[in-house]
Amino acid sequence: MEAKPRFTEKRFYIIIAFVTSLFLLWGVAMTMGDVLNKHFQNVLHISKSRSGLVQLSIFGAYGVMGIPAGLFMKRFGYKRGVQLGLFLYACGAFLFVPASNAESFTFFRVALFILACGLATLEAVAHPFVASLGDQRTSDQRINFAQAFNGIGGVIGPLIGSYFILRAEAGHTNDLVAVKHLYIVIGAVITVIGLVFSFVKVPKDLTDPHVVAPDAMAVAETPHPTKKLFQNKHFVFAVVAQLFNVAAQGGTWAYFINYGHEKMHLTDAVAANYFAFSIFMMMIGRFIGTFLMRYISPNKLLAIFAACNIVMCIIVSQAFGWVSFGALIMINFFFSIMFPTIFSLGLKDLGRNTQQGASFIVMGVVGGALFPPLMGLIANKNVATSYLLPIICYLVIFAFASGYNKLKKAL
Predict the structure, then answer these.
(1) 3-state secondary structure 246-287
(2) Which of 91, 237, 323, 324 has the lowest tally of Cβ within 10 angstroms?
(3) Dist. CA 273–CA 156, nearest whole Å
């Protein structure tokens, strides 16, 4: 009988621990953006639709940086790719200082864009990086495991924002000093991590993810090694699914605090704490999802979770009080496995096109730039009704997941 593939190898333990920490770092940055969204509405007196440009700046960076990050990684390897991502992350954080001094929404968006270019680089590198750290048959498990720590970072982000920004806002209505000080600390931490990573040794053979399995299983699993990247229909649909997936995420997260404030009559700080709890539920969902994938194929589980979120969005849109607010929290639970699973399913059997494929799937994250301003136009009138819009996204994800096996077989 064939031995069950291991999660990873002992020689990769230190590397996988560090790469997993990267998922946590950009989780903090992503959910902090949603806190800033509400803070800018209050302090800079902008509308919901205009505050949605925060997400446009963050997710738009993925559309700009996705391919360059992949080319950089292909030329210089995973280690240099991680260092570039951390450098841009830190630079964007430090630019919050002049942006706060100028009290300029446009300047803040520039700083967020540069910071997000770092996040896009880290995502383009980290997903194929962690996928390469062991047998390709367990790559779904490794990516979902690493993404669970992205969930931890996602919990930390709104908690930090609630305490240091929204809580401070209650006493200093027009004060951006807390934002400035917080991002100085974030920039310094990221800089130190980048320096530490320079001492981590990364095996050179990891630059080709399809040959990392000890038994060369990754090569054997590539049935059409000469097939061009866009001839892989499962990959093309994965890019589309990821675009709609992150569009749903961006819109759902951008107006979570608004929903808590307007429909549940919570303070912004308390609503941010519930947002942190919803991200905690997403983290739990990833651990549970990783376990369930031992018994349910990843694409089938993805289809089930997409169907559940369609139901959750309908309940949220009806504004049934705590029932609807609970459904809003549960959207993140079912959202949990979507990003990493779409990513790993899209990279299956791409062979030497894996790194390039990862760059295009990361570019799909630009979807998060499209929905928040559009949802904001509806949210200006009724924030609950705006949650009907992500249903479109979950229908696309369901179609990808349910038809995945046929897509893989298509030439």
Answers:
(1) HHHHHHHHHCHHHHHHHCCCCCHHHHHHHHHHHHHHHHHHHH
(2) 323
(3) 10
Residue 152 is inside which H or E element, if any? helix 139-161
Alpha-carbon gap, residue 361 to 236, rounded angstroms? 9
Nearest to 369 by CA among 275, 251, 279: 251
| Residue 303, domain CATH | 1.20.1250.20
What value does the mean pLDDT of the chain take? 84
Q: Is 3 contained in some domain?
A: no
Position 5 in a domain: no
How many residues appear in the chain? Answer: 411
Contacts 24+ apart (CB under 8 A), 50-54: 50/105, 50/373, 50/376, 51/254, 51/376, 52/254, 52/372, 52/373, 52/374, 52/375, 52/376, 53/105, 53/109, 53/372, 53/373, 54/108, 54/109, 54/112, 54/254, 54/372
Q: What pLDDT does residue 94 have?
A: 97
Identify the CA nearest to 348 among candidates 303, 404, 411.
Answer: 404
Q: What is the pLDDT of residue 168?
A: 60
How high is the pLDDT of residue 221? 46
Pairwise CA distance, residues 156 & 162, whole Å = 10
Domain that holds residue 397: 10-409
Looking at the whole model, is its pTM more than 0.85? no
